[in-house]
Design goal:
By secondary structure, this protein is of the alpha+beta class. It is built from 15 helices and nine strands. Strands 1, 2, 3, 4 and 5 form a five-stranded antiparallel beta sheet that branches. A hairpin with a 2-residue loop joins strand 6 and strand 7. The longest helix has 32 residues.
C-alpha cells in the first residue's frame, strides 16, 4: 500500500531518481549474500530480513561493539569486494527513510511520559543500511546544460556591455569587467574541484546560471556519493570560500585603481549607482574603509552615480553571488552545507523558512533590486530542490570545528 499511494512515498523525497534506474536494481540474491556475510562480521546486527524498496533494499538493525558509520561502510565494502559485487551494488548507511507517522509518534510520546522512560523514543531516528545499484550517477543532459550556460554567458556579456555604457564606452572596460567575473567563477569551481579530487567525488561540469547582475554563479551535480558528511561539507564550502576570497582581492584591486586614477582616467570609468554599492554589506564595508563612508550616504542612492573601475563591479558581483550560494536552498552549496551540519530533514525546514524569508523581503520592499527574490525563483523552477545522492555514511555527524 505504501507504493500504490502516490502521496505516500517518503523514499522519493529522500533519494534521487538516479538511484532507481530500471534494470539496475540489486537482485535478491545479491542482497542475501551481503546480509549473510554481515551477520558474521558482528559490526551491524540485522533484526529483520531485507525490505524491498524502489531502487534497492533496506536492512534494519543496530550497530554492535560501539561501531560507527565509517566502520559499517568499511565492512560492507569489504563484503562487496570479497563477493565480487563491485559492479552491481553499493551500500549506504542512512537514517531510516520511512519515519513513523504522527499517530505513532504521539502514542510513543504518551507512553514515554506515562512510564517516565525516554528510551521508548530512541527508535524514531534509527540508522539502516541501504543496498542500491552501483550505477547511481544522474543522467547528465549536455544539451540542456550547454544551453543554460550559453544563456548565462550571454547575460554576463550583456551586463558588462550595458554597465560600461555608464561611462565613456570602451571595449577595454568591458573586458576588464567580464574577465574578473569569469575568473571569480573559475576560482569558485577550482575550490570545489580540489576537494572533489582529494575525496574522490565525481561531479558534473559547471553550469553558468543567468542572473540580475549577469549571473548567479554556477552549479554542478554530484555524479558519485561523498564518503560522509564531513566530505560533503568540505566540498560545498570550498567553492564559496575560495570565491569570496578571490572576490575581495579583485575588489581591493579595483578600489586601488579607482583611488589612484587621474581625473581624466576616472572620467572614463563605468558609472554605478550608490544603491548598487550598498547591495552587499561586506563589499560596502570594505568600500567605506578604503574610500570613505561618505560615498554611501547619498540622499538619493538610486540616481546618484559614481564612476568606479570595472574590477570594483566584478568584486561586488563575486561577493554577492558567492554569498547567495551559501543560502540553505536545495542543492546549492549552502543547501549541502546545511545537510552536512543538520541532516536532510532539518535542512528541509530551514530551506522552506529561507524561501519564505526571501519572499517576505521582496514583498515588503526590503529587496528593492529583487536580486534575492529572483535568485530564489530561478532555483525553484530550476529543480534545485530535487533530492541529491546521499553520502555513503549519512549518520555520523561532522566534527565540532566544521560545525563552528
Amino acid at each position: 500500500q505504501m507504493w500504490t499511494d502516490p502521496n505516500n512515498r517518503p523514499i522519493f523525497k529522500v533519494l534521487p531518481d538516479s538511484m532507481r534506474k530500471p534494470g539496475k536494481e540489486p537482485t535478491q540474491d545479491d542482497v542475501d549474500i551481503i546480509f549473510n556475510n554481515l551477520i558474521s562480521l558482528k559490526v551491524f546486527r540485522p533484526d529483520s530480513r531485507p525490505q524491498k524498496i524502489p531502487g534497492g533494499f533496506i536492512i534494519r538493525g543496530d550497530v554492535e561493539n560501539q561501531a560507527n558509520g565509517d566502520s559499517v561502510i568499511s565492512s560492507l565494502d569489504d563484503i562487496i569486494e570479497k563477493c565480487a559485487l563491485q559492479n552491481k551494488v553499493q551500500c549506504y548507511y542512512i537514517l531510516d527513510p520511512f519515519p513513523p507517522n504522527r499517530d505513532e509518534i504521539d502514542s510513543a510520546m504518551s507512553k514515554a511520559f506515562e512510564d517516565m522512560d525516554e528510551s521508548i523514543l530512541d527508535g524514531f531516528e534509527k540508522a539502516v543500511i541501504l543496498v542500491a545499484s552501483s550505477d547511481t550517477a544522474p543522467e547528465f543532459t549536455w544539451k540542456e546544460r550547454a544551453l543554460a550556460s550559453s544563456v548565462g554567458m550571454a547575460c554576463i556579456s550583456y551586463f558588462a556591455v550595458m554597465t560600461c555604457y555608464g561611462g565613456e564606452f570602451s571595449s577595454g572596460h568591458v573586458l576588464s569587467l567580464l574577465g574578473p567575473v569569469l575568473f571569480i567563477q573559475f576560482a569558485h569551481e577550482l575550490g570545489h574541484r580540489a576537494i572533489a579530487w582529494k575525496d574522490n567525488i565525481n561531479v558534473s561540469p559547471p553550469t553558468v546560471t543567468p542572473g540580475v547582475l549577469g549571473t548567479y554563479g554556477s552549479n554542478n551535480a554530484l555524479m558519485s556519493p561523498p564518503k560522509d558528511r564531513k566530505s560533503l561539507f568540505d566540498f560545498a564550502i570550498s567553492g564559496p570560500l575560495v570565491g569570496i576570497i578571490t572576490s575581495v582581492a579583485v575588489l581591493f584591486g579595483g578600489l586601488f585603481q579607482t583611488s589612484s586614477a587621474t581625473d581624466a582616467v576616472s572620467s572614463t570609468f563605468p558609472n554605478v549607482s550608490v544603491d548598487f554599492l550598498r547591495i552587499s554589506a561586506l563589499a560596502s564595508e570594505i568600500l567605506s574603509n578604503v574610500v570613505g563612508g561618505d560615498i554611501l550616504l547619498a540622499p538619493d542612492p538610486v540616481n546618484t552615480l559614481i564612476g568606479v573601475h570595472p574590477w570594483v563591479i566584478a568584486g561586488y558581483i563575486g561577493i554577492l553571488t558567492n554569498g547567495l550560494s551559501l543560502l540553505p536552498l536545495g542543492t546549492t552549496d549552502g543547501g549541502r552545507i546545511a545537510t552536512a551540519v543538520a541532516g536532510k530533514y532539518s535542512t528541509e525546514i530551514l530551506r522552506d523558512f529561507c524561501y519564505l524569508t526571501l519572499c517576505i523581503c521582496g514583498f515588503f520592499g526590503y529587496d528593492e533590486s529583487q536580486v534575492l527574490v529572483l535568485y530564489a525563483f530561478f532555483l525553484f523552477i530550476g529543480g534545485a530542490n530535487d533530492p541529491e545522492l546521499p553520502c555513503r555514511n549519512e549518520v555520523d555527524d561532522i566534527d565540532v570545528p566544521r560545525a563552528m
